[in-house]
Design a protein that fits this description.
Layout lengths: L56 E3 L12 E4 L2 E4 L3 H12 L3 E5 L21 H6 L4 H14 L16 H19 L2 E5 L2 E11 L2 E14 L15 H4 L8 E9 L7 E4 L5 H5 L4 E2 L25 E2 L2 E5 L12 H4 L8 H5 L2 H6 L1 E3 L15 E4 L6 E2 L12 H7 L13 H20 L17 E3 L24 E2 L26 H6 L2 H10 L5 H5 L20 E5 L35 E4 L11 E3 L8 H7 L2 H21 L16 H12 L21
Parallel strand pairs: 2-8, 3-4, 3-9, 4-5, 9-20
Antiparallel strand pairs: 1-6, 6-7, 7-8, 10-17, 11-15, 12-14, 12-16, 13-14, 18-19
Helix pairs in contact: 1-4, 1-16, 3-4, 16-17
Length: 702
């Protein structure tokens, strides 16, 4: 229960991709990755061969067959699992603080959204962008990307002011981490192509701590094709197997704290893997309708409907018409594709320029396309894949994982449904063929879609996505497992950021009074009463006469900021997602709206039970609706920077993260205040200008 009174402070075999379906003949792709791609970060170095220590609580290790011996060992003060934007930001701040950092990443590119996931177009709101009120590290990345393009508006896209080639994102972040290590005299050990297989967890004091982590790094086997030849659905299970295969040779790595025995582990994976692997309390999919999430689409929790995920790909505009073989699977997905709105069908150049990541002619308008332009495709009616049932959900629930044996010793396989990965891959490749040759539109009716033959699908290891098959190395994940934060005074069932904490929704709209139960609607009014809470409770005001709060919730433990719309890409009602006539799950878009500028509280990163773990990125304690706003680039960075700074701070202070926020609000908050000062001094804002419980005037922030 939460107290609103406190206004607080495959079954298919491994086959090579059908490269004959989509050919790239562009001679200029001898190395898209911009001017100079460098590897200035040292990867792992050989270490001691050791066995896993005995006497530990082991999640997913050994089993009937003995685990492979450890090939390498690495020690570090801070272990960051996941090299997406949040993970990179955490490593960046910890390195600047002089810490020894280990960073693992399932792909070979740093940056997640800006690189390996191909969503290389920065999602920003106009006011925050115009004032450049972002974390310092994010601003540095942003400015370097602009400088690389020789274009004040890279890509001449219209979804953002900064659209760029994915390899440029990896390049910039590689350089930034190397410079952070040099500046702070920290040390980075980067483990690309690496997944976590086991956690060794031991009781310490009143709680537990992660004592070591067992990881698997893969590289091409002798005579095997290079990495990134096969799509993820064909390699994921192999990546989590300790045994060498026809594709991969494996290196078993044990990651441990230094001799002091003290370290902080940061969960920064794209789907919250460590939450599943460690069996920590978390949520998946839709939360039940409550006064805190009054726009929820279900009266009860429904775990099978997180937001849709997307395989991005790149296409090039050509002077000459292109031809492509229709993929064998295209008829299965044909009924899904749509331009979504008549104006896009009438002017398809808008779909291309929406996320144009390379402009052959600088300063182009949205309605124009020049041969040589390159567009990244991330389109709701094209390659959004939204499985939403128990038979096709993408991120497995704990019950599903348990029944599959993934939570048994040695059983962890990443926690994702491979069949859904494959479906998303086919949907994306079929979408290219639909753009090129399709004549049907599932939403706009007959005669609304014309072929667009002057498009080339770009593939090959030197192409924008860096893969032989042309799809992003990893899908763009909008939502995975979401932590239930450690319980405190106000949140005795666990901390969570909710819809009403951030949304600009008009909850006095008759929809809510007419839909919610009277008690729920009254509690919603109490939650939105702000400084008038007591007057409402005492009956001096009613929900009808109340001036409802018009700002985000203020958190006394804020460690970051964000501002973005609650932007939904819903799951589909029936299985499979591409089923003819399928619809989005009803009610899912009810929560969509703008937000007020909001904060990221430290409590959203602190799990129950495991005291030396911080959770960041999209996996923080947040509801399904609120997560739709917290998932974009700058907010991921802000959350990651907060986690990295917190990790370095608590190691220096000799405390554990949860001790910073025990019993909030409380009289003595000196360590928390010191952490917040450090964040601000390092250029990581924890509040927007003039943010306070007294300021309800945020109409100019859009």
């Amino acid at each position: 229960m939460r107290f609103p009174l406190l206004e607080e402070l495959s079954s298919r075999p491994l086959n090579p991709p059908n490269l004959g379906d989509f050919r790239s003949h562009s001679p200029k792709f001898g190395g898209w990755g911009a001017k100079k791609v460098i590897n200035s970060i040292n990867c792992v170095v050989p270490g001691l061969s050791i066995l896993i220590s005995c006497g530990l609580i082991t999640v997913g290790s050994s089993g009937l067959a003995a685990p492979r011996p450890i090939d390498q060992e690495a020690t570090c003060d801070v272990l960051v699992v996941g090299g997406g934007l949040a993970g990179v930001a955490a490593a960046y701040e910890a390195l600047k603080a002089g810490r020894n950092v280990c960073l693992t990443e399932i792909t070979d590119w740093l940056g997640g959204q800006v690189s390996a996931q191909g969503t290389s177009a920065l999602d920003e709101r106009p006011t925050q962008r115009s004032r450049l009120y972002f974390p310092k590290g994010y601003l540095e990345m942003r400015q370097r990307l602009i400088a690389l393009s020789d274009n004040p508006q890279p890509g001449d896209c219209w979804v953002s002011l900064v659209c760029f080639l994915p390899a440029q994102g990896h390049q910039v972040l590689t350089e930034m981490l190397a410079e952070a290590a040099k500046h702070g005299k920290g040390k980075l050990q980067f483990f690309p192509n690496t997944v976590v297989k086991d956690l060794q967890i031991q009781p310490v004091g009143q709680g537990q701590q992660i004592q070591s982590v067992r990881a698997i790094q893969h590289r091409p086997a002798p005579s095997a094709p290079p990495l990134n030849t096969y799509p993820l659905s064909q390699t994921l299970a192999d990546s989590y197997s300790e045994q060498d295969s026809k594709l991969f040779q494996k290196t078993m790595i044990q990651l441990r704290p230094p001799a002091t025995g003290q370290w902080i582990v940061v969960e920064a994976t794209e789907t919250g893997e460590l939450l599943g692997l460690a069996n920590l309390p978390h949520r998946l999919g839709i939360d039940p309708l409550t006064y805190s999430d009054p726009s929820a689409s279900s009266a009860t929790a429904y775990a099978y409907c997180p937001q849709a995920f997307t395989y991005t790909f790149a296409i090039e505009a050509t002077a000459q018409p292109q031809t492509a073989l229709m993929p064998s699977f295209y008829p299965q997905y044909q009924a899904f594709y749509s331009y979504d709105a008549p104006r896009y069908a009438q002017t398809p150049a808008l779909v291309f320029s929406y996320r144009r990541i390379f402009s052959a002619k600088l300063g182009q308008a949205s309605e124009s396309v020049t041969p040589g332009d390159i567009s990244m495709q991330n389109w709701g009616g094209g390659n959004d894949y939204g499985p939403g049932t128990a038979i096709d959900n993408f991120v497995y629930t704990q019950d599903q994982l348990s029944s599959q044996g993934q939570l048994a010793p040695g059983g962890w396989q990443g926690g994702l449904r491979v069949e859904s990965l494959r479906g998303a891959e086919e949907l994306a490749q079929g979408y290219y063929y639909w753009l090129l040759a399709g004549t049907t539109d599932s939403k706009l009716g007959p005669d609304s879609k014309r072929p667009w033959p002057n498009l080339r699908y770009l593939q090959g290891l030197a192409s924008p996505m860096g893969t032989a098959h042309g799809l992003s190395k990893y899908p763009y994940i909008r939502e995975g497992r979401r932590l239930i934060g450690r319980a405190d005074f106000a949140y005795n069932q666990g901390f969570e950021i909710n819809e009403t904490d951030v949304s600009r929704k008009n909850y006095q709209d008759p929809f809510y009074a007419g839909t919610l139960k009277p008690e729920t609607y009254y509690n919603l009014a109490v939650a939105m009463a702000g400084l008038k809470t007591i007057d409402l409770i005492l009956g001096k005001l009613t929900p009808e006469t109340l001036d409802w709060r018009s700002r985000a919730r203020i958190y006394p433990d804020s460690v970051g900021i964000g501002n973005y719309n609650i932007d939904f890409h819903p799951c589909m009602l029936y299985s499979p997602p591409e089923k003819p006539g399928n619809i989005e799950r009803p009610g899912e878009r009810q929560g969509a709206d703008e937000t007020y500028p909001f904060q990221i509280p430290l409590r959203a990163m602190i799990p129950p039970r495991i005291d030396n773990l911080l959770v960041t990125g999209k996996n923080i304690a947040i509801s399904h609706i609120a997560a739709a706003a917290y998932r974009v680039h700058s907010i991921e960075w802000s959350a990651g920077a907060a986690a990295g700074t917190t990790a370095a701070f608590v190691l220096e202070a000799g405390i554990l993260p949860y001790q910073l926020v025990e019993n909030i609000p409380r009289p003595n908050q000196q360590p928390l205040a010191a952490l917040q000062r450090r964040l601000v001094d390092n250029g990581n804002p924890i509040a927007f200008p003039d943010m306070s419980i007294f300021n309800n005037n945020w109409q100019d922030w859009r």
